[in-house]
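RECORD TYPE: inverse folding
INPUT: structure tokens
STRUCTURE:
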């Protein structure tokens, strides 16, 4: 019997020189490349995902302070999955086994039924469609409330972009945001401020020694109502885009708190989010799904050049 990969089954699709691999554990992206050039900093098939790498953050992105919130008149206590900061972190599906529903040459769809458990009473049917095309990767998540009551909901994704840098200090970054969230030592929002100094990335700027683990908002949309965060080095670019109305926040992380051998060397995390940290507790931009209601909104990654 052959050994089972830590991330479970591996499902790959192709389009031209592009190649994407999605995994059974968490339903997220393990690798995305154009020819021999990685677009995301993934992880080998012999390893599990680390630092949220490529994972789907459902039914909330980021953190919930003390794992506590109240909804529909009931107090809830989530498991504290970030014990060092006493937070519930990045949702409930990162380590779940997802099902493969569609697997075509350039399209695949994965699905998961999120059922009630500690701190969560709201059944959701989740699907994520991955499609490679001439404009790169489009990811379309979908959540349907299959329970008989209202359900709170938030979505985020956690790709780490790379453009061939040895360290993230070498890349140029553009984030079209005019506001950044202020946080406490547990990374829970305390307010917001206009971007300034190293956090003003509205024009392309080389990162250098800038340390980022910040959520940005008031994002300026471009074509088709989408904002774009662009990582660049030389002729290579990697762009995360998202619908500005559905994803009013983006977290950017330069990896400074990762283990020493991975600090600032494994890409820049660019995380589209429907809501900020602690939204289950505060209600800030929280989506509330009525019974049978479905939420869906695309985001994607556009590499350049698109040929190897």
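DESIGNED SEQUENCE:
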């Amino acid at each position: 019997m052959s050994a089972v990969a830590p991330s479970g089954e591996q499902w790959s699709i192709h389009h031209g020189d592009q190649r994407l691999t999605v995994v059974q554990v968490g339903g997220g992206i393990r690798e995305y490349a154009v020819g021999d050039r990685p677009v995301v900093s993934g992880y080998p098939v012999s390893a599990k995902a680390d630092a949220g790498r490529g994972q789907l953050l459902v039914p909330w992105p980021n953190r919930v302070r003390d794992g506590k919130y109240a909804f529909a008149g009931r107090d809830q206590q989530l498991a504290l999955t970030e014990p060092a900061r006493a937070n519930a972190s990045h949702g409930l599906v990162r380590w779940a086994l997802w099902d493969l529903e569609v697997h075509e040459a350039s399209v695949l769809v994965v699905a998961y039924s999120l059922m009630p458990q500690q701190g969560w009473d709201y059944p959701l049917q989740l699907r994520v469609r991955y499609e490679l095309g001439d404009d790169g990767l489009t990811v379309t998540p979908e959540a349907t409330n299959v329970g008989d009551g209202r359900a709170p909901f938030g979505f985020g994704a956690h790709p780490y972009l790379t453009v061939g840098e040895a360290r993230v200090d070498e890349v140029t970054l553009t984030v079209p945001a005019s506001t950044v969230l202020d946080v406490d030592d547990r990374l829970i929002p305390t307010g917001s401020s206009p971007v300034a100094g190293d956090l003003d990335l509205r024009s392309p700027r080389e990162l250098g020694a800038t340390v980022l683990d910040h959520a940005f908002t008031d994002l300026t949309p471009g074509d088709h109502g989408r904002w774009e965060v662009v990582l660049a080095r030389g002729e290579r670019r990697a762009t995360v885009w998202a619908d500005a109305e559905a994803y009013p926040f983006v977290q950017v992380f330069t990896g400074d708190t990762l283990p020493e051998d991975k600090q600032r060397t494994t890409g820049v995390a660019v995380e589209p989010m429907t809501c900020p940290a602690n939204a289950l507790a505060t209600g800030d931009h929280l989506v509330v799904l009525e019974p049978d209601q479905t939420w869906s909104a695309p985001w994607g990654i556009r590499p350049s050049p698109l040929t190897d």
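NOTES: The mean pLDDT is 97.
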